[in-house]
Write a structure and sequence with these properties.
The chain contains four helices and two strands; from the N terminus they run E-E-H-H-H-H. It has a two-stranded antiparallel ribbon with strand order 1-2. Helix 1 (22-47) runs antiparallel to helix 2 (53-71), helix 2 runs antiparallel to helix 3 (78-97) and helix 3 (78-97) runs antiparallel to helix 4 (105-123). A hairpin with a 2-residue loop joins strand 1 and strand 2 (11-14). The longest helix has 26 residues, at 22-47. The protein has helices spanning 22-47, 53-71, 78-97, 105-123, and strands spanning 5-8, 11-14. It is mostly helical and 126 residues long. The chain is globular. The two termini are 28 Å apart. The chain has one domain (20-123).
Length: 126
């Protein structure tokens, strides 16, 4: 099997993965989840309505997104895996309750956050 390549100025250049970017990519995923949680749920948390389920969803998202980022500084996988598990559960809950019989922007975002959470659930701090 031939590796992917591209043709430029009469030469074939074979493309190899840049494995040195993996740590940067995992940190970008962590920070992306944290940024999403902050922009989406921080105002809901500030309303402090203990009778609304949205307050608890916001609190879980913000707490475990912060713990996912903090887990990146630890050598052990426990904090990252636990945070990813809770983020995945809350993301699935949000996607199911917010589903509107069609594919929309919110479902796409929930799918992306869920897949990042599943990645950290499966790989930990690798």
């Amino acid at each position: 099997m031939v590796a992917p390549f591209f043709y430029f100025w009469g030469k074939f250049y074979f493309m190899k993965p840049l494995k040195s970017l993996i740590p940067l990519a995992t940190w970008m995923m962590r920070l992306g989840v944290g940024l999403y949680a902050y922009t989406r749920y921080f105002n809901t948390l500030l309303d402090f309505n203990l009778n609304a389920i949205s307050f608890y969803v916001a609190a879980v998202n913000l707490i475990f997104a912060a713990l996912l980022i903090a887990g990146g500084f630890s050598r052990k996988h426990n904090l990252t895996v636990l945070s990813a598990l809770f983020l995945l559960i809350v993301t699935i809950y949000s996607a199911v309750t917010g589903f509107q019989n069609s594919v929309n922007y919110s479902l796409a975002i929930y799918t992306m956050i869920g897949s990042v959470s599943m990645y950290f659930l499966a790989s930990g701090n690798r």
